[in-house]
């Protein structure tokens, strides 16, 4: 049970905003826009809260800077505690994000502390600084595989801007991620739309129901997800919000992410949303 919660909660923390996109493929990056998005989620196992995660990003003059925090709480903290803080800065270029510096700090219940810094270069794989050092030779990630991915924080910003979506694929397509140790892909599949709850979420457009598929590329134990040790199906309910200050004219906001495990449902629920200082969610 502890392993299942760790796996699902870690994925929710990383991709809590990596769920969908609604920008049209021909939408161009708006020049000299300044905008800020603040999002908070409560994590639940069954109906019991066990943690929360926050994400804050500022877009200004085609640059972006983001921070996030993840903490466990409640009964789950008795047998599993985790704290993860991360940050990134980089540039927007068309429908791409070009990270510059990514840093993360994590603390586990065992007392283990891990610090990671990725310095991205114009050519070649990012430079990695890990403390304690990663054993990158045991489960290697090739230079080409590293170059193909962006850091987890930039992946969130990438999808929030709707950069990977089209009108035919409103859930977006794929995000390639490299966290300094592992390369994986998050692939989105559009399922259907449902009506928006405008009483609680004013200004939202259609709500898309999406499936998220997690694929390990490199840096993992070869048998990590074989047999019964596989990721459960993950789904997301996301809404479109038009915003003239957004880099591509609108934001895509996950309202809920959930996964059904053999022990019960693990989910992330939107609890706070502010865009440019304006509260966009009514409780």
Describe the structure.
The protein is mainly beta and 283 residues long. The chain has one domain. The chain has 3 helices and 14 strands. Strands 1, 2, 3, 4, 5, 6, 7, 8, 9, 10, 11, 12, 13 and 14 form a 14-stranded antiparallel sheet that branches. A hairpin with a 7-residue loop joins strand 6 (113-119) and strand 7.
Describe the secondary-structure layout.
Blueprint: H1 2-15, E1 34-45, E2 48-60, E3 63-72, E4 82-93, E5 96-108, E6 113-119, E7 127-131, H2 143-147, H3 152-160, E8 174-178, E9 183-194, E10 207-218, E11 234-242, E12 250-261, E13 264-275, E14 278-279
Antiparallel strand pairs: 1-2, 1-13, 2-3, 3-4, 4-5, 5-6, 6-7, 8-9, 9-10, 10-11, 11-12, 12-13, 13-14
Query: Helices and strands, in N-to-C order?
Result: HEEEEEEEHHEEEEEEE
- Helix tally equals 3
Q: Give the percentage of residues in beta strands.
A: over 45%
Structural class of the helices, strands and pairings? mainly beta
Rg, rounded, reads 18 Å
Sheet of most strands: 14 strands, antiparallel
Strands, total number = 14
Distance between the termini: 32 Å
The chain-level mean pLDDT equals 80
Low-pLDDT residue intervals, each spanning 5 or more residues = 1-26
| Helix percent band | under 10%
Instruction: Give the domain tally.
Output: 1
Global outline: globular
What would a concise description of this structure say?
This protein is mainly beta. Helix content is 10%, strand content 48%. It has one domain.
Structure keywords:
14-stranded antiparallel beta sheet, disordered N terminus, mainly beta, 283 residues, 3 helices
């Amino acid at each position: 049970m502890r392993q299942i919660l760790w796996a699902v909660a870690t994925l929710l923390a990383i991709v809590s905003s990596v769920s969908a996109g609604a920008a049209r493929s021909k939408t161009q990056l708006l020049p000299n826009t300044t905008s800020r998005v603040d999002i908070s989620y409560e994590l639940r196992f069954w109906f019991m809260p066990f943690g929360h995660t926050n994400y804050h990003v500022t877009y200004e003059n085609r640059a972006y800077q983001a921070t996030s925090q993840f903490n466990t709480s409640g009964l789950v903290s008795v047998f599993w505690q985790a704290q993860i803080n991360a940050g990134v800065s980089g540039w927007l270029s068309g429908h791409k994000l070009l990270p510059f510096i990514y840093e993360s700090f994590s603390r586990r219940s065992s007392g283990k502390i891990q610090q990671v810094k990725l310095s991205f270069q114009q050519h070649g794989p990012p430079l990695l600084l890990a403390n304690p050092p990663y054993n990158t030779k045991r489960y290697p990630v090739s230079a080409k595989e590293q170059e193909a991915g962006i850091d987890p924080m930039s992946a969130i910003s990438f999808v929030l801007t709707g950069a990977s979506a089209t009108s035919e694929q409103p859930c977006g397509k794929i995000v390639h991620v490299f966290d300094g140790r592992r390369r994986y892909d998050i692939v989105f599949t559009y399922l259907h739309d449902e009506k928006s709850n405008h009483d609680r979420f004013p200004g939202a457009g259609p709500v898309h129901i999406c499936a998220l598929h997690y694929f390990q590329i490199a840096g993992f134990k070869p048998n990590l997800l074989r047999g019964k040790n596989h990721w459960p199906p993950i789904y997301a309910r996301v809404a479109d919000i038009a915003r003239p200050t957004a880099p591509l004219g609108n934001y895509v906001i996950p309202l809920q992410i959930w996964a059904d495990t053999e022990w019960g449902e693990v989910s992330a629920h939107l609890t706070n949303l502010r865009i440019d200082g304006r509260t966009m969610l009514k409780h």
